[in-house]
Amino acid sequence: MATILLLIAQKDFQTKEYGDTKHTLEDAGHTVVTGSNERGIAQSNIHEEVTVDVALRDVHATDYDGVFAIGGPGALLSLDNVETVRIMTEAKGNGKMLYGAICIAPRILVKAGLLQGMHITGWDNDGKFGTICENGGAIHELRPVVSDERVITANGPQSAKDFGEAINKALA
Prior knowledge:
Blueprint: E1 3-7, E2 11-13, H1 15-27, E3 31-36, E4 40-44, E5 49-52, E6 54-55, E7 66-69, H2 75-78, H3 82-94, E8 98-102, H4 106-111, E9 119-120, H5 129-136, E10 139-140, E11 145-148, E12 151-154, H6 160-171
Parallel strand pairs: 1-3, 1-7, 2-4, 3-6, 7-8, 8-12, 9-10
Antiparallel strand pairs: 4-5, 11-12
Helix pairs in contact: 1-6
């Protein structure tokens, strides 16, 4: 079975996106490792606390079979940084590793130039995601979950279980 790294904001990650994705992967027999800015405790948007297994600075993407960023109100503040970009760049450069994001987190990957030419989806309640994709060379699709080669993206909490299922399908 695979080992998947889920990256979450230290504060205000989206509880449902993290929980549903994690449980869907674990129910399929995969191991899920949680990463954030620092080891210890991370707090969700509804004040749920989870243990962070690894600090971003200590992550080697090649130790995992897939790396995915979880959204939520804290994602752009906490995960839009050089360490997340480094990790996702390593995942992309691996040539076979799965990577992606859910909700607002795909914006981080688009901004970093990691999704050029890829069909993706993401949170767009502010109406800006289409322009962000266009500026970053990604192709925005209005679907809950989009898989394009090794990239898997989803548009928010309502799609978290399906996001996990798409990752499971890609790992099979």
